[in-house]
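Hey team,

Filing this mostly as a record. A colleague (T.K.) asked me to run one chain through the structure pipeline before their review meeting, and I want the input and output archived in the tracker in case anyone asks later how it was produced. No errors, nothing strange. Just documentation.

Input sequence:
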Amino acid sequence: MLTGALLILAPLFLGFALRLENRRAMTVIHYLVEGLVYFILGLLGLGLGQMSGLADQLAGMAVQVSLLVLVLLVANLAGLWLLHQFQPMTPDQSAPAVSSGYRRLFLAGLKPLLAVLAGVVAGYWLLPDLPLAEDLATAMLMLLLLLIGLQLRNAGLSLRRLLFNRHGLGIALALAVSSLVAGLVLVPVLDTGLYQSLALASGFGWYSLSGIVIGDALGPAWGGVAFLNDVIREIIALAIIPLLISKRPAMAIGYGGATAMDFTLPVIRSSGGLACVPVAIASGFILSFLSPVLMAVFLSLAA
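Output structure:
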């Protein structure tokens, strides 16, 4: 189990408390974060590849991922639709058409899957058992959270403006609450404990965090389920944003979860216009903080 799950929050808040003025340092941090994400995902795949009885568990994992994705999709879109009824956003009718960059982003969404697949292949066929891999993954995750905290603190964003962005805050809360409702619904379906199910529902698209944290706490099989659930959320978000954003901006922005402030932001910008950008950044920022907090709390309660 994850010992002291709440301790994973310390690097995030420590990083957020530090201020850097050096742009070169921030550029280095950006590339370090990108490299760490793929390294951690490779370690997640390694753990899956070396898991005892992997072949026998794949069918069960596929069912669990499908249930998570489907129930979260329905719950999230329903919650965001209700938000739109009570707090509608005005679509930007002058938004430009989606460019070919959208297709490149969609293909880029497959890269995390390739990183995990490479780890699975290495763990299953190439490498011997590595007993320190789990400890290394936890250490790299804490370093990643420290660097992400630095990025959030030094992104030139006003915390007050983000937290008081009415639409962004509403979208973040609607997604978080509807995800937890889905987690409650999934308790008997996934045949897992209450807090474990709520933790699985709290990834909000942050696959590099959810996969390794859940895997550390509940084992590599559940880590793989959490990772795939959040990667598939990101891919679905890239597909539905251009379809929904002209009529239901909150649904389009919100379903991407934490990725609305980074990975899915270019698609939100290109298909929804400039007016959607501050809302997307605010909702993604809030969910990026809520996700590790909620997962750590639920996993601590489950321990």
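Quick notes for T.K.: The chain has one domain: 5-302. Residues 54-86 form the longest helix (33 residues).
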